[in-house]
Amino acid sequence: MAPSGGEAQAREGLGRSQGGFSTRLHVRAEGGGRPMATVLTAGQRHEQIAVEALMDHGAVRRSGRGRPRLRPRCVAGDRGYSSPTVRARLRRRGVRPVIPTRSDQRRLPRFDRKAYRRRNAVERMFSCLKQFRRIATRYEKRAANYLAMVTIGMILLWL
Questions:
Q1: β-pair type (20-29, 35-42)
Q2: Distances (CA, A) of 100 to 4, 32, 58, 158
Q3: Looking at the whole model, is its pTM more than 0.85?
Q4: Most-buried pick from 14, 48, 120, 130 (CB within 10 A)?
Q5: CB burial class (10 A; 0-12, 13-18, 19+) of residue 9?
Q6: Nearest 10 degrees: Cα torsion 98, 102, 107, 108
Q7: Spatial distance between the Cα atoms of 48 and 53, rounded to a whole number of angstroms
Q8: b/e for 110-136, b at 16 or more Cβ within 10 A?
Q9: Range list of β-strands (E), 7-153
């Protein structure tokens, strides 16, 4: 039995959101704003789906000797990642979430504004990635091809 149109579109990372037919690119970046891992989802899917996959990939080299660290000290994310489920998943891994609460949620008293301000490096990284026209407009209709172009863009940002 062939998959329906909606299933095939979701598998290719395409979906309808308020802005139209779109794709969401979730990226895990290191402290300096350089990309480490990426996950592609359909436009209508929420951010919670990508958290586990992002946390499982991308290791940071230590400054001295030793095995690369897979688990960061803290994770800064935008309001889309603000949910009790995501916060619990991060705490279970021993990671401190630095995510502002949405307006419909109870405010958390221990929000670290200073750590959250460093998130602008990730926003600048997205701006640099969007300079590549193929990434910004998604010429590639297949998810594998689009992720290959994103990977090439990420490599160029590391160089």
A1: antiparallel
A2: 37, 21, 24, 28
A3: no
A4: 14
A5: middle
A6: -20
A7: 10
A8: eeeeeebeebeebeebeebbeeeeebe
A9: 15-17, 20-29, 35-42, 74-76, 96-98
Please name each of the domains of the chain with its CATH number.
Answer: 5-158 (3.30.420)
Amino acid at 108: L
Query: What is the DSSP-derived secondary structure letter of residue 15?
Result: E
Please give the structure tokens belonging to residue 69: 């660290």
Please report where in the chains the tokens 């949405």 appear, as a residue: 102
Q: Of 119, 118, 123, 130, whose CA–CA distance to 156 is shortest?
A: 130
